[in-house]
């Protein structure tokens, strides 16, 4: 997986919007992002997700995974709020509010948009609370649309209760390290560091780990728990497929903004990917240890 410079850059040179030297600098920077970010093992070699996708997960594996993911999902709200507060521009603040409000239960709204008929709401989500298009501006709030509540519904099928999930006390040291790194880096008050973290996270999310998780969860659902709702994971996978096409557009805009600091951006991205890796390494080490004690 490699980042590609779009044809827009050459067009901007032709139109006189940027200089050939600026375009060359951007090309060099994208090459650096490829070497710094896209070769990171959490993007290219996520051992836990590769194992998970094989479909050999048992009930205890799934329960531990769902609990740790619920901690990450719930504590992510703190990092996202910090990103809103520390945004460098009004546009950046609004973009961050979109994510936060949707996480809390404001459904994306787009006039005329409709999911249509959904045959399997456990997998694809209830059309009343799930939308992939539009904005939270004009959207409708539903408690049931909160992402954490989707995980709670999933946990119920596994025998977990509300207070078994999502709290800091439920997190392993690796999970809590990841959450704290999100606060410190993704929510950093320096926009260059925060944007580097955002860019790295988007590329990690678009690298396919959602699909690997869905494959493993599908296998477990068919084998052991037919009523297991998967909408949290299928929805995020679809959203990341949409975001994947925009990350380079966002970088192109950011790079040519006054005050952009390449080194801070790269620092934020590198450190954030290390934080992400800690989370998945923790899950992988736990499942190996559990297998050895069975």
Oligomeric status of the shown chains? single chain
Determine the CATH topology: Heme Oxygenase, Chain A
Beta-strand content? under 5%
User: Structural class of the helices, strands and pairings?
Assistant: mainly alpha
What is the C-alpha radius of gyration, as a whole number of Å?
Answer: 20 Å
Gross geometry: globular
Count of runs of 4 or more consecutive helical residues: 14
Q: Write out the CATH superfamily name.
A: Heme oxygenase-like
The largest sheet is: none
Note poorly predicted spans: none
The CATH level-2 architecture is identified as Up-down Bundle
Question: How many strands in all?
Answer: 0
Alpha carbon gap, first and last residue: 37 Å
* Helix percentage: 55-70%
Topology order in helix (H) and strand (E) letters: HHHHHHHHHHHHHH
Whole-number tally of structural domains = 1
Can you tell me the CATH class? Mainly Alpha
Mean pLDDT: 89
General description of the model:
- It is a single chain.
- The protein is mainly α and 294 residues long.
- The chain has a single domain (13-100, 146-293), classed as Heme oxygenase-like (Heme Oxygenase, Chain A, Up-down Bundle), CATH 1.20.910.10.
- 65% of the residues lie in helices and 0% in strands.
- The protein has 14 helices and no strands.
- The protein has helices at residues 7-14, 20-36, 41-44, 47-53, 59-85, 90-104, 121-124, 147-157, 173-186, 191-205, 209-223, 231-244, 247-255, 262-293.
- Helix 5 (59-85) packs antiparallel against helix 8 (147-157), helix 10 (191-205) crosses helix 14 and helix 11 (209-223) runs antiparallel to helix 12.
């Amino acid at each position: 997986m490699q980042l590609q410079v779009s044809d827009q850059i050459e067009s901007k040179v032709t139109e006189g919007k940027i200089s050939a030297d600026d375009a060359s600098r951007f090309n060099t920077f994208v090459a650096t992002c490829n070497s710094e970010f896209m070769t990171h093992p959490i993007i290219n070699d996520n051992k836990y997700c590769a194992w998970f996708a094989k479909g050999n997960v048992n009930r205890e594996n799934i329960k531990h995974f769902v609990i740790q993911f619920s901690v990450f999902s719930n504590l992510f709200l703190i990092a996202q709020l910090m990103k809103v507060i520390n945004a460098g521009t009004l546009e950046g603040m609004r973009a961050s509010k979109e994510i936060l409000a949707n996480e809390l239960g404001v459904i994306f709204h787009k006039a005329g948009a409709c999911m249509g008929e959904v045959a399997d709401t456990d997998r694809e989500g209830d059309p009343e609370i799930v939308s992939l298009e539009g904005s939270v501006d004009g959207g409708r709030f539903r408690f049931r649309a909160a992402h954490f509540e989707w995980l709670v519904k999933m946990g119920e099928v596994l025998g977990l209760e509300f207070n078994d999930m999502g709290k800091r006390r439920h997190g392993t040291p690796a999970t809590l390290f990841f959450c704290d790194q999100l606060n410190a880096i993704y929510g950093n008050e320096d926009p260059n560091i925060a944007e580097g973290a955002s860019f790295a996270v988007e590329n990690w999310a678009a690298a396919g780990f959602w699909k690997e998780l869905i494959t493993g969860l599908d296998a477990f659902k068919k084998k052991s728990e037919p009523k297991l709702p998967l909408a949290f994971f299928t929805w995020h996978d679809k959203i990341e497929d949409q975001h994947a096409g925009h990350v380079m557009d966002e970088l192109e805009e950011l790079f040519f903004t006054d005050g952009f600091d390449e080194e801070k951006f790269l620092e934020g991205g590198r450190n954030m990917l290390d934080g992400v890796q800690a989370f998945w390494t923790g899950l992988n080490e736990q499942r190996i240890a559990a297998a050895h004690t069975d």
